[in-house]
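Tokens in:
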């Protein structure tokens, strides 16, 4: 992936390190604090009745895990969607995608477990499945060099499932069930532009790791994207095996085109 640097932003260089930052992220009581951060309005005072030390830590966690980008196009797209209040109903979905892209552990859990079970038609993602998955990975703490404890692993599994419910891709109290997520025309267009921003050199967008995050099978995704081309939102080339998509609008303009 080609790097696009600006003086203000240091872009992500894979592979990302593992961290347990989903725990403090999931503990932020108001998601609006996170959405304000994308719009350049992150203020430690918004964390409520917390110590200054905790507020500073949450500020860092948001910046390190969420306000990171793979390209200038990615940055402009995310800042655009979270600055447009007409897109408010889809902000949880956009945050779901952004968190996956900027937190390696979350991405791998979602890719290897969440979407595996989702496309298999299962009803739930059991916490114990996440715990077993994490134990098999034997991730080491960056602070101590020791393998994550059972307590850390269980907390990650619990916090992630709770946060997925808050993002409205799961539901339930003790047992978290999958919700059926159907992307509308606007959300799917944003998703395609996100794919192009993160994988600008991809020759087949059916094979990029994030593709399954569209909540659609490959066959359904192809048909959905073709309809976007008819609407003149993007260009599509499909030869029966490879799907190539190209932007029809600039990344800092597509949000206004969709939510005018």
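Residues out:
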């Amino acid at each position: 992936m080609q790097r696009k640097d600006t003086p203000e932003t240091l872009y992500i260089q894979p592979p990302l390190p593992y961290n347990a930052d989903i725990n403090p992220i999931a503990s932020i009581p108001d998601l609006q604090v996170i959405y304000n951060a994308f719009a350049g309005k992150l203020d430690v005072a918004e964390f409520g009745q917390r110590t200054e030390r905790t507020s500073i830590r949450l500020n860092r966690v948001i910046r390190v895990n969420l306000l990171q980008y793979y390209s200038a196009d990615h940055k402009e797209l995310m800042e655009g969607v979270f600055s447009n209040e007409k897109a408010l109903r889809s902000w949880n979905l956009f945050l779901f995608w952004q968190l996956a892209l900027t937190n390696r552990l979350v991405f791998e859990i979602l890719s290897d477990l969440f979407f595996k079970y989702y496309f298999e038609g299962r009803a739930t993602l059991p916490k114990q499945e996440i715990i077993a998955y994490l134990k098999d990975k034997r991730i080491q703490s960056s602070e101590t060099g020791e393998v994550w404890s059972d307590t850390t692993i269980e907390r990650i599994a619990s916090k992630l499932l709770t946060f997925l419910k808050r993002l409205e891709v799961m539901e339930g109290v003790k047992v978290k069930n999958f919700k059926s997520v159907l992307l509308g025309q606007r959300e799917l267009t944003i998703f395609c532009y996100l794919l192009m921003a993160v994988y600008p050199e991809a020759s087949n967008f059916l094979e990029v790791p994030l593709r399954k995050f569209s909540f659609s099978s490959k066959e359904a995704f192809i048909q959905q994207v073709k309809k976007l081309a008819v609407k003149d939102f993007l260009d599509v080339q499909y030869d029966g095996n490879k799907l190539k998509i190209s932007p029809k609008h600039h990344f800092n303009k597509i949000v206004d085109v969709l939510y005018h």
